[in-house]
Specification:
alpha+beta, Trna Endonuclease, Chain: A, domain 1, Arc Repressor Mutant, subunit A, 2 domains, TnsA_N, TnsA endonuclease, endonuclease
């Protein structure tokens, strides 16, 4: 099997541009770099975005964590990852700073720098565009890393876009664990069902029974669904995760999920008015 070439040269930059990378928005956006294009030191992943309806390319665990927060946020309307910066502008900034522009070590080609996330953010005062870089805190001791971050910061300052740096210290660990747990249950369409409308029926029964359950634990309630409502083993928890994922049930995302907790820690709502921690990036 041929070894994948991760290097960048002018021909590859021309090809990426012709492919429409770094262009479009929403479901039409194509990131400049995909998980196939880089030899990531972290775990890269491809995740379906609820906001955009497309597959997102994330190059580290920290990027994945940041994405989950953004995708959950009610205020975020679009997420563009691996967003390319104009080389003419970053080259000029590097010259003004008196530092070397980032290059590909093999071809010695000036690379197209990217920002990890470009985010459309809706606030009560109107729409905002936010640029966010994601870096491990320990890498900020490296002078070269700081030079690259400064090029990026100045680039977005010229574009009049709010730029910020996210490290692991900004990422709420327990909330992210819960969002990982919920994300795959955002849709149940991939599940095999015995008849059309099966999951809608299960969700309706779950919500109705939950309101009448009284003083039970979550585990007791799910066992009741299996005993009296025809739920198969595991379906009750699956429906619970789905209803939380689509924000029809609110739970404390900053606490570890506990099956032995009282059922009343879950709050059934009729709208998606859920507090979201991704506002910390505004």
């Amino acid at each position: 099997m041929a070894k994948r070439r991760y290097g960048i040269d002018e021909d590859k930059i021309i090809r990426f541009t012709k492919e429409g990378r770094g262009q479009g928005c929403g479901p039409e956006y194509r990131p400049w770099l995909t998980v196939q294009d880089v030899s990531s030191r972290g775990r890269s992943s491809r995740i379906h975005g609820v906001k955009t309806g497309r597959e997102h390319h994330l190059l580290s665990d920290m990027e994945t964590a940041t994405f989950l927060l953004l995708d959950w946020s009610n205020a975020v309307t679009d997420i563009r990852e691996q967003f390319p910066l104009e080389r003419d502008v970053t080259r000029r900034i590097a010259t003004e700073m008196g530092v070397r522009h980032p290059i590909d070590s093999q071809s010695q080609t000036d690379v197209v720098m990217t920002t990890d996330f470009l985010v459309n953010f809706q606030t009560s005062n109107g729409a905002l565009l936010l640029a966010r870089s994601v870096k491990p805190y320990g890498e900020l001791d490296n002078d070269r890393t700081l030079e690259k971050q400064e090029i990026e910061r100045r680039y977005w300052e010229i574009k009049k876009v709010d730029w910020g740096l996210i490290t692991e210290k900004d990422l709420p660990a327990q909330r992210i664990k819960n969002l990982h747990w919920l994300h795959e249950m955002n849709s149940l369409e991939h599940m095999v069902v015995p008849y059309p409308g099966y999951w809608e029926d299960r969700c309706t029964r779950f919500a109705a029974c939950c309101k009448q359950a009284g003083d039970m634990t979550i585990k007791q309630f799910i066992h009741q669904l299996e005993g009296t409502q025809g739920f198969s083993v595991g379906e009750g928890l699956m429906v619970l995760r789905h209803l939380v994922a689509i924000k029809h049930i609110v739970m404390n995302l900053d606490a570890k999920f506990d099956m032995n907790a009282p059922l009343n820690v879950l709050d059934i709502v009729t709208s998606a008015g859920v507090a979201d921690s991704a506002r910390r990036f505004a």
